[in-house]
Structure to design on (193 residues):
């Protein structure tokens, strides 16, 4: 039974509590969207920066791989290597070249130099000063797979001398590129098989 004299008031809006709940929900949604967008942009910037260093490392490693696969058992040059450098003969075009790779730890780059052995005292016969093949790398090491004369087993060794051991069967290249990307590749040498 309704009370007489009191008017019935109809609700025509939202209460303060309802408005506050909706405001808090929209605020949380907005913060989530801004944080997701910000994180995505940071990851994109970081990935774009690493992509260039990663690509440079892959291209340089493939250049080294190509040169090693073309290595030639050519006694006047031989195949000599340590943990941070290697020298070998290579067939390139219509001539034989002496190829050298060396890691410069102070500059953190791998240099490649070559000298045309087929040229007769020409400018092409001079060794170039070296080109950076891979830059901004650390912990660069080379290891050479072949028969260890001391143990009589095939294994990776820190140094190689072709006048004593012939051609290595493979070379392992390991390094850390900019951004912490680790590279480790074993490159077979057909002339050593």
């Amino acid at each position: 039974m309704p009370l007489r004299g009191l008017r019935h008031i109809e609700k025509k809006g939202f209460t303060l509590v309802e408005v506050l709940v909706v405001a808090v929900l929209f605020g949380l949604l907005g913060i989530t969207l801004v944080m997701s967008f910000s994180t995505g942009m940071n990851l994109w910037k970081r990935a774009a920066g690493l992509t260039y260093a990663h690509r440079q490392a892959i291209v340089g490693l493939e250049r080294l791989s190509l040169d090693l696969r073309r290595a030639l058992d050519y006694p006047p040059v031989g195949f000599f290597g340590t943990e941070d450098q290697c020298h070998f003969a290579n067939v390139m075009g219509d001539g034989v070249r002496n190829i050298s790779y060396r890691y410069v730890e102070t500059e953190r780059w791998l240099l490649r130099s070559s000298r045309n052995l087929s040229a007769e005292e020409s400018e092409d016969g001079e060794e170039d000063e070296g080109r950076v093949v891979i830059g901004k790398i650390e912990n660069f090491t080379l290891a050479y797979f072949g028969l260890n004369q001391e143990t009589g087993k095939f294994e990776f060794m820190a140094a190689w001398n072709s006048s004593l051991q012939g051609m290595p069967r493979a070379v392992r290249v390991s390094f850390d590129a900019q951004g912490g990307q680790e590279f480790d590749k074993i490159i077979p040498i057909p002339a050593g098989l």
Residues 52-192 form one domain.
